[in-house]
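Posted in: Protein Modeling Q&A

I'm a second-year student putting together a small comparison for a lab meeting, and my supervisor asked me to include a predicted structure for Late embryogenesis abundant protein LEA-2 subgroup domain-containing protein. I've never done this before, so apologies if this is the wrong subforum. The sequence is pasted below exactly as I got it from our records. If anyone can share the structure token output, I'd also love a short note on what stands out.
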Amino acid sequence: MPPRTKPQTPTNNGKYLFYIIEAIAFQTIIIVTILLTLLHKTPPKLRFQALAVEKLTVNATSFSFRLHGEVTLRNPNFGQFKFPEGKVVILYRNNSIGGAVIPAGRVKARSAEKMNVTVVAEAGDFGGEGKVTLSSNAVLSGRIRVSKRRVKATMNCTMDVDTRRGSIDQFKCD
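Accepted answer (user: helix_wrangler)
Welcome! Here is the predicted structure, written out as tokens:
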């Protein structure tokens, strides 16, 4: 009589291979999602927080003033934002009447940095109006440390300066 052998049971090697491939695909999706979240670049937000008019001088044809303000740079990214020196420009009737320098620096990930800025501005073409509409522009170009990508923080603000009282009435930043 031939020797007895155990009956063969079907093996499920294909089933295990499917589970391994499924686990690798799932891990890949999770890693790609995390990387896209961390490396997503969002432009930092640059805004005037507090403004005050100092030393306002008005005559029939011109005006001059000193504008003291606090500029806040918010970095919503997961990496540090490093930027070189920038400039804030004050415009009256689309002509530059003054500006100030924003010093070079860095903002930590997901935080904000406050900087004091003093702008000296003079305009000749004044009509003796009670309110003067001014606009301010600033651009800070820099890099985000994690992704090494260049981004720009921009600011466009408009303000109405009351030349009689020496105060800012309306103020709006985009």
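A couple of things worth pointing out for your meeting: The two ends are 95 Å apart (CA to CA). The chain has one helix and ten strands.
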